[in-house]
Fold this protein.
Amino acid sequence: MSDGAPFNEIRGSGGETHQQCPEKSSQDRDETLTTNQGIAISDNQNSLKSGARGPTLLEDFVLREKIFHFDHERIPERIVHARGSGAHGYFEVTDNLSDVTKADLFQRAGEKTPVFVRFSTVAGGAGSVDTPRDVRGFAVKFYTKEGNWDLVGNNIPVFFIQDAMKFPDLVHAVKMESDRAYPQAGSAHDTFWDWASLMPETTHMLMWAMSDRTIPRSLRTMQGFGIHTFRFVDADGKSTFVKFHWRPKLGIQSTVWEEALKLQAADNDFHRRDLFESIAAGNFPEWELGVQLFDEAFAKSLDYDVLDPTKIIPEEVLPLRKVGRLVLDRNPDNFFAETEQVAYCPANIVPGIDFSNDPLLQGRLFSYLDTQKSRLGTANFHQLPINAPKCPVMNFQRDGQMQMTVPKGRANYEPNSLAAHGEMGGPRECPVTGFRTFEGQAQKQEQGDKLRVRAELFADHFSQARLFWTSQTTSEQAHIASSFVFELSKVGLDQVPPRMVANLRNVDEALAKRVADGLGIDLPKKSQAAREPVDMAPSPALSIQKNMIDTVEGRKIGILIADGTHAKVLKSLVDAIKKAGATPFIVAPKVGKVALSGGEPIKADGQLAGSPSPIFDAVAVLLSEEGCKMLLKEGAAIQWVMDAFGHLKAIGFVETSKPLLDKAGIEPDDGVVSLTNRFIEAAAKRYWDREPNVRMLV
Ligand code: HDE
């Protein structure tokens, strides 16, 4: 049924109920429901029976096919990064990179390459929530003219481990515990901290994980990183090391922990919804791609190893070169076909890009293709529309389950002499344009005996954890210390928190003391560092708060109204919000019809109980004296204002709403403004200074 007309219920002669398409006795073939074999279906309501009350017949191929297909709709979820949200878009080069790479996609400023991006949480299952404390995946598939390049990164520039050998242990430890199957999507439990505290190389990443980086406000306001050192290779075969950085145009924004917790209750799909709605509304999320470029000599000059994925190169030491922008401008047509079936793989690279010897990266090169065969069920998953390159694919690989292509001729081997004798000979390798692994001198030097070891500088586990700590604002440090306390307080194994705090003493004594105090345990003896940490100059680029952009663009502002709210005031606020590039969302105790004073009744966007203030970036309270009086007795309204205040958001109000603010215990500060005033300007910020008045952080 393409016209969406309702079905009529018709009584059959035997009293049986069935439904038919109204009016139409015949219709276009391309509108007709069919089986998978293309057979037109006459009745999609009733199975075939022997008599109206008789048994269903095995003969009913329409029913059997429908149920068979339904039975097999689910596929295995990803072992990690199972919950994700994706979007289509493009990458546009703004600065041609031909001086360092021959990769075709970077050659011409202004040129656009189509992309599909998938963001994900790591630990939770596909049906888990969007806002746990967790690292976020940031995977980009570039459909270049030279084949697919996948930059499969995260929103944190370092990783927990240095060697792929430890990945299954990390994932087993962090995912739900294997006997009890909880927690579903978070690291605050015994096995994760037991393992992490025994693995000092995790310390740098733990600092990031305990910071506000892992509770992003939206997927649109996260940074992304390729993490590993990769190589660019130019047309002459010269190699330059490269690290990739995505920077959100709207700046980084995170939530506060309590807000993230409340968001889980308010909207399990908070990030997915935000991404989808923003794109649908034409507010296209955008990032800038920056690269850090360096050579062997620079790498050797550092106190740490650029092959170690637990290390960054501070931007103040090696600034970013801006090379392009990523814009997401189209939602998937179908979540399963695209977001679920997309298969990223760090081994998908194009000529001009190459790997480094980072032992974590090297292990990843094996894992993704391998897991995708088991997840997608066939070695031919590269033929799915979302995975298929947008350039020709020609080779002699044949057959396999779900083969979608129909190769012609009998040339399925190489070399062959068929072409010379009038038959199709098939494709040939090309030494000029084909991918050649970088063979440089330096690469050759990295050889030696076969050893299960790590390079010497990998042993420094704490210098950069300290660098991260010293680069944060006072408020961010309090968040980190409090997160350690929260997570470790969930650990029931008594040996674990002291072991973790013993490691933290190598990062910063004050941090360790705060965590020990917060947990109410004695300060343990400092753990023995494998290599003594060194002090590094703080890197302001590592702080979220130092780099926030004060703007309401792309944000959502909640407006609480009730019967009696003044129509004119509401309209002027809505207009001002829209003008500033934000989205107004009207909340009322009854959603259907709100009687405004001096205007027509309106329908609200959300009902008060279902639209708590954590889902907004700032709020305004527009109640008449009567409306306010009524809501003074409504816990959800008091909580609405109280949460906005507690989550450090701006609150705009009209004078008649003041009793509600008073009842919610709102104390005046820069972020609490009268609506005649500078509300839009105030809404562009979070009020970190307010925090010590609203919660006890350690
Ligand atoms: Fe992954 N990772 N990973 N990972 N990873 C997967 O591949 C793996 C690592 C990342 O949206 C899996 O198709 C190993 C670092 C993202 O579909 C799997 C190691 C980084 C995604 C896998 C790592 C990532 C994955 C699971 C250590 C940041 C989601 C399903 C050697 C640079 C991609 C799949 C998507 C997914 C293995 C470490 C990012 C099992 C073995 C470091 C964003 O193959």
